[in-house]
Amino acid sequence: MKKKGEAAYLRGIGYIVRYIVILISILLALFPLYFVIVTAFKSKGDFIANKVGFPQTWVLANFYEVILTNPLLRWIINSLTLTIPSVLITLLVASLAAYAISKMYFKARDLAYNSIIPLMVIPPVVLLIPLLRAAISLKIVNTFLAPIVIYSGLLLPFSIYMLTNYFATVSNEIIDSAKIDGLSDIRILFNIIIPLSKPAILILVVINSLYVWNELLIALIFLQTNKTRPLMVGIVSLKDRYSMNTTVLMAGLLISAIPIIVLFIISQKHFVKGLSAGAVKG
């Protein structure tokens, strides 16, 4: 009985430590969001006096400054011009590749699938110099074509990997029945596989949109003119050379997060299902 009591006591201590670690992790994850929100509604003097706490007076002047003194609409349009084509191209190519790997049989199928994981871990920064030289030689610097192609290439490995795992869960009997009815592989993909894979498709749209929308380095290098500047680069440009207007910068960051938050809320019910289905090969 004494040993059982000690085991129960240790188990209870373990639960308490676990929940404390989880709580600390949640607070650390939420603190940047909290800081952005409360800082965006502070005046400059209020921020200097109290950088972390709630504002003495909630003000909207920072949002007015971001919206009225900068081409915010142009930045948003440029970001949409980058995000929408990049996500759509990635989904199209990834769907075709994932269907081929998961439902078709060819000699290099396993090699193609196993080569996806190493491609996912290549950091984009090591590719910048050769990509920039290629863009200069093709004369596509300061055009949306260069970052769209780069984003699509960077997003493809993870997208193919996740869709391959999800497509593999679709019963082969459905595919065989469709082929008996005379459907081609393209029609099977778009009429059967993709509708059945809606959770995975939506989760990829959210993840890929989040990456392209918030990406800074590639956009900063390949889009160097004010006319092509996307939202994230524009917001970073609010920082002066010798000083940083933190309250205005946080207001801009909060505005930039709104479209992604809305997209996530719309597809929230598919989020967990899509991630769990793509985590393990079916």
Q: What count of domains describes the coordinates?
A: 2
Q: What is the N-to-C order of secondary-structure elements (H for helix, E for strand)?
A: HHHHHHHHHHHHHHH
- CATH class placement of the largest domain: Mainly Alpha
The CATH homology group name of the largest domain? MetI-like
Helical percentage: over 70%
CATH third-tier fold name of the largest domain: MetI-like fold
- Counting DSSP E segments of at least 2 residues, the number of strands comes to 0
The chain-level structural class is mainly alpha
What's the shape? Answer: globular
Question: Can you name the CATH architecture of the largest domain?
Answer: Orthogonal Bundle
> Radius of gyration from the CA trace?
24 Å
Structure description:
With 282 residues, the protein is mostly helical. The chain folds into 2 domains: 2-61; 64-279, MetI-like fold (Orthogonal Bundle), CATH 1.10.3720.10. The protein is 74% helix and 0% strand. The radius of gyration is 24 Å and the shape is globular. The two termini are 45 Å apart.
Chain-wise SSE layout:
Elements: H1 2-40, H2 44-49, H3 61-68, H4 72-103, H5 109-114, H6 116-120, H7 128-138, H8 145-167, H9 172-180, H10 185-196, H11 198-214, H12 217-222, H13 231-236, H14 246-266, H15 271-279
